[in-house]
Amino acid sequence: MRREDIQPLLRETVDLLPEPDMADAAWAAGLTVRRRRRRIVVVSLLLVLVALLVVSISIEVGSNGKADLTPPIKLPTNLPGYVAPAGQISGVDFWIAPPPGSERFLERLETQLGDRLELPDKVHALSSNKLGSIAAVVLVKNGDAYEPLLLGHDSSWSQAAVELVSVDGTPPLSPGAVSHDGRLAAFVQPGELVVVNASTAEISQYRLPVGDFRSVSWLADAQHILVSGPGIAYRVLLGEGGDGEPPLVRIEGSNDPEAVTAPFRIQTGSVMRYVDNGQWTEETTLTLPVQSWVGQTFSSDGGGVARLFIAGKLPQVPTLRSQPQGVAVMSTFRAVPGRLLILGEPRTDSGRTPPSPGDPGDVREPGCCAVLGWYDEQNVLVQVRGWVLAWDLYSGGVRRVTELAVGEVALGPGLRP
Q1: d(CA 236, CA 225)
Q2: Smallest Cα–Cα separation from 391: which of 321, 261, 298?
């Protein structure tokens, strides 16, 4: 074959071949790239999940099942009105609360309670003025009976159609009376638990064993509630519950009836977490100089736990006549330090004459004060003599919430605007 015959032969052979479809080729190539990228993404996700699983197992093993991670929120120090801590007590930073008599001059935190919480002039029947969310509950005495008044989120007052009697000579209102969803209020009575549904005006009674019950604390599901007295406590089922769940379950009690709270409770030496079997398990340890605890423990959604205690003498906070009291705020995250707010006395370095023994208005006696709950994850609500205050955990500052012209009060989530 001659060289000049090769080119015509090649043209003839090519003409017999089918023409390639470039679109099909591009599509096939694209599918190949897409599959390769998808494999890379899947492998990367698997590697991330494996890494997270390893970290989780390490945390679980290293902390005996208790997470030791720092939550993403950090407490800033450059906020307006930031107050530096006054020092430390038992290794915990503490702040000094404004002295008694200065409350009305504090900056105010706006709430549905208004500037002064007092018995209203105008009250509706709850049946005609149902409330979506309870801001506060107070009692009005009518002879030997007490009638509950409910303040709603809309600032209107409603009266529940029920009469309550005193419990061991005290008004039947517990600081934890309002459920977490703000719809229900519970009151212990001799031999029964009375629950008022503010959204339907329905009033329900649940039988209790014979006992000196004084305190109530709601579980987050609003279907269970803890009732307690000295050395005795029960979990009461309000809803249908699970299969075969009994309406009443005996749980571990305490000599201090107000100590039985869920999901956490602060007691001397530790923060305890409530578990479904009716027992408590230790969450963290405490080494505070506590002589006794006052009131209930209130927990925030962000892991904060707060309760008030009475201390002996504190070298860091000398007092003239008052016995030191402090609001202890602990975190269920171990990496987040606790904080203390110490209730102080009148200032004596501003030219004011020190209080005399006959001036009891300037002394916060033991039992005068207690934690009432949380406004939000940042602010703890504290009752002092004649006032409700809000302690801002981020800035350390204290604001007035309302002046109290009523006796006992229980607060609910409806107090937020």
Answers
A1: 5
A2: 298
